[in-house]
Each structure stands twice: as structure tokens, then as C-alpha cells.
# Entry
Amino acid sequence: MDISSTLVIKASNIVARYKNKTVIEDISLEIPENKIVSIIGPNGSGKTTLLKVLSRNFKPGSGHVLLNGRDIFTIPYKSVAKQMAVLSQSHSSPGDFTVRQLVSFGRYAHREWWKAMTEKDYNIVEWAMEVTEILHLSNRKISTLSGGELQRARMAMCLAQKPKILILDEPTTFLDICHQLELLELIYSLNKKEGITVVMVLHDINQAARYSDEIIVIKDGRKYMQGSPQKVITSNMLKEVFNVFAYVSNEEYLGCPVFYPVKMA
# Structure
């Protein structure tokens, strides 16, 4: 089978600029279907901009992004939203809305603006809250939620879109380690049980190694490498990209490499 038929996103020779500053320089990459792909790299390397380009939220100066074989910038926004949900870093949510109301926003792409929610819409909203284990919070105001609860509510809103692809920009930011693992386990479960393709930016390299099928490393706006965690997480990569000397151990009980920083390179 032609490998292109298994790709959901293919980016070719992407160059992105903010005013006169080039943030992404000639990046090409492929996102395979039903996989979890994490993007890692130093601060300011262009990770968030790359996600914005891949999700049709920032048009590059040159290059192409194909979503299931079509130029994503020629696809109407609502059509993209039916296939792809984006969880940004921003936590700006209407505090006086209930959790159920927030999650219901996820049905926007599937509704005509003048029509009320259908029984199908309500059932999907219920499903999204059940999957993210926030049904008991459905009538709570957004302003009363903890960081972990809010992130689950925002994830439920994304799932209410019934997407085939989830784009997540640092989904564990501002969460303690317990809630980080809880959210990553949810993402892992959604990938395995629902077949959702996941593309996410993570700061924690060990978490990226543990939960990803593939890792893309970005350095200075360019793709340094892409491959399995075993291929990517090496002492040499950590030195060249993150400027640290580190020991890398392949932990059999985890089935992935784990790195231990030693000192700055």
C-alpha cells in the first residue's frame, strides 16, 4: 500500500515568518494516521508556530500543508474543524459558563448557526464528558475548577468536535505531576480506543518518550530529526539540541528510553 494513504498531515518546505523574523525554516514532516506524535525542542525553536501552521491557524510564507491529501488552506474552516480539534496553551474560558456549556461549544462546527442543538449533539457532549470523567462537574462554573479539571473540560470540548486529529500545545502546562500523568494517560487512551491521531508539543522529554509513537525534534526553526523515541532520544541529540550532557537508559519495564541530565554541555 502506498504510504501516502496512511498519512493524515503532510507538510512540505514550510517557511513561516513574524514580520521580518523567520521562525520556521524549510520544515517538511509527515504525521501518520492513528499515531501519537510529539514535538520537542528548546524554548523559542518554533514549536507553537509549527502547530499553528499544521492546524490552519497561521499561513506560512511558503510551503504546503496537506490534510488527507488536500491543501489545508483551501479547505473551509468549519470543514477542518470537523476533522481536527486544537487545544491551545491559552486558558481563557468564560468563567461564568458551566462545564456543560463549555463542552457544547465543541459542536459548533457540526451545526448551522441558526439551529439549536440536536439530540445527537447532546449525546456527543455527554459522551465527551464521560470519556474525560467530568460528568460530575457538568453544572459547575468554569471559574470554580482546578487546573486539572479545567484542562479536562477543555479536552472534552475538543472531543465534542468528534475529531480524527487532536492538536495539543503543551497540554500539561501548569499541571502538577499527578495531573500531568492523568491527562497523558487520557490522551493515550483516546488514541488507542478511539483511533484519534495526536500531535502535541511537550516540554518534558521523558513524557514525550513514554507516550509517543514518534518524536519530532525542532532546533532553531528547523527539523533536526523525526523517528521513534528509541531513535530520537540519545545523548548526542540532547547535547546538540538542548545543550546538556545526559545519560540515556532504555527502561524495559517502560518500553521506552529515559534520560537523566548530568550537566550543561
